[in-house]
Design goal:
The chain contains ten helices and 13 strands. Helices cover 37% and strands 17% of the residues. Helix 2 packs parallel to helix 3 and helix 7 packs across helix 10. Strand 4 (68-71), helix 3 and strand 5 form a beta-alpha-beta unit. The chain has helices at residues 13-22, 54-64, 85-106, 137-150, 175-184, 202-214, 231-241, 254-257, 272-277, 285-295, and strands at residues 3-8, 26-32, 44-48, 68-71, 110-113, 156-160, 164-165, 189-192, 196-197, 200-201, 220-222, 229-230, 249-252. The longest helix is centred in the first third of the chain and has 22 residues, at 85-106. It has a seven-stranded parallel beta sheet, sandwiched between helices. A two-stranded parallel ribbon has the order 7-10. Strands 8-13 form a two-stranded parallel ribbon. With 299 residues, the chain is an alpha/beta fold. The chain folds into two domains: 3-164 and 200-222, Rossmann fold, CATH 3.40.50; 166-196 and 227-295, UDP-galactose 4-epimerase, domain 1 (Alpha-Beta Complex). The structure holds NADP nicotinamide-adenine-dinucleotide phosphate. NADP nicotinamide-adenine-dinucleotide phosphate is lined by residues 9, 11-15, 31-34, 50-52, 72-76, 91, 113, 115, 142, 161-164, 171-172.
């Protein structure tokens, strides 16, 4: 009999990639606000459920009793969170706390997806044990959620990605796909050259989640690519991988964007622990972009 996994935020970028990783040998129970792209097949069941409804969530978990829970759902609009503080805090802070308690009650392990935004972004890249110091409402809400699951006493792994990218269907925001569309249509783009991180490829993150669950690695893990680069350099690498002209990519500063929420400027995640303890190779950005290109069937 297949093992089963419950995935929150199944329609999102990471949710879709987790389905691809797990559906070959797992029964999938997906939750999201909308029906999304999957429909229902023999081993993928999707239920529309607002995770703020803790009673409905509790009832659903009791009904399906998954072997594990992967919590990817979040309020992810960083700038809008500055105004929608209460909604962001409910989804990113309180929901993870409820999920961890439900997991504990039914003895189901949880993988919780956090973010590099729990750090200030003043002096990255960061190790798992570095001091957390969130700036801005989205970051504070995600830190509250991370704290709650870690303090819950449940079997929990927290994985922190940064600047996640990948392939999926009907996604609302994907930096790579947006950039490819702009460059293919010969439109010039302005990309910040003063925000640094080591982007996380969603497809490989999904594989990392499987290893963490298989090895019962209840701990905090960082996962990104080998090198820390500016967003501008990342954009150049994307153009290069997909054979598009980089002449349309213009470097700007973060202040030019006038964004509502602060951004971590010197971020990035040191992934040595994952590499050593879980023997997961950390790849270069070029290697992972080549995998993405293959995944997107672009020749
Ligand atoms: N993307 C990044 O660059 C990045 C970087 C670091 C960490 N992360 C973290 O990684 C995780 C996955 O990110 P992602 O990019 O895959 O996010 P995403 O594409 O925005 O997907 C999140 C999904 O959760 C759903 N959702 C939101 N509120 C919900 C609720 N109350 N009940 C049920 N479903 C709800 C969303 O629905 P709607 O679309 O309808 O709202 C969406 O389908 C998040 O925890 C995020 O904080 C992301």
């Amino acid at each position: 009999m297949n093992k089963s996994v419950m995935i929150t935020g199944i329609n999102g970028l990471l949710g879709q990639n987790i389905v691809r990783e797990f559906s070959r040998d797992h029964d999938i129970y997906g939750l999201d606000l909308t029906p999304g792209i999957f429909g229902s097949s023999s081993n993928i069941k999707v239920k529309q459920l607002d995770l703020n409804d803790v009673k409905a969530l509790d009832d659903y978990v009791e009904l399906v009793r998954p072997d594990s829970i992967i919590h990817t759902a979040a309020y992810t609009n960083v700038d809008r969170a500055e105004e929608d503080e209460d909604i962001a805090f409910a989804v990113n802070g309180l929901v993870p706390a409820s999920i961890a308690q439900i997991g504990k009650k039914f003895d189901i392990p949880l993988v919780h997806i956090s973010t590099d935004y729990v750090f200030s972004g003043d002096s990255g890249p960061y190790k798992e044990t570095d001091t957390r110091d969130a700036r801005g409402k989205y970051s504070e809400s995600k830190l509250a959620g991370e704290r709650a699951v870690l303090e819950s006493g449940a079997e929990v792994a927290v994985i922190r990605p940064n600047v996640m990218y990948g392939h999926g269907k009907n996604l609302k925001s994907s930096f790579v796909e947006w950039l490819l569309t702009e460059l293919r249509n010969e439109r010039s783009v302005r990309i910040v050259d003063d925000q640094y991180n080591n982007p996380t490829y969603a497809r490989r993150l999904a594989a990392v989640i499987r290893v963490v669950l298989d090895q019962k690695a209840w701990d905090i893990w960082h996962f990104g690519s080998k090198e820390v680069v500016s967003r501008y350099t990342f954009a150049l690498k994307i153009a290069d991988t997909f054979g598009l002209s980089s002449a349309l990519i213009n470097a700007i500063s973060t202040v030019d964007l006038n964004q509502k929420a602060p951004r971590p400027m010197r971020s990035g995640l040191i992934c040595e622990k994952l590499k050593k303890e879980l023997t997961i190779p950390i790849m270069s950005i070029d290697e992972e972009l080549a995998l993405l290109k293959e995944e997107m069937h672009v020749s």
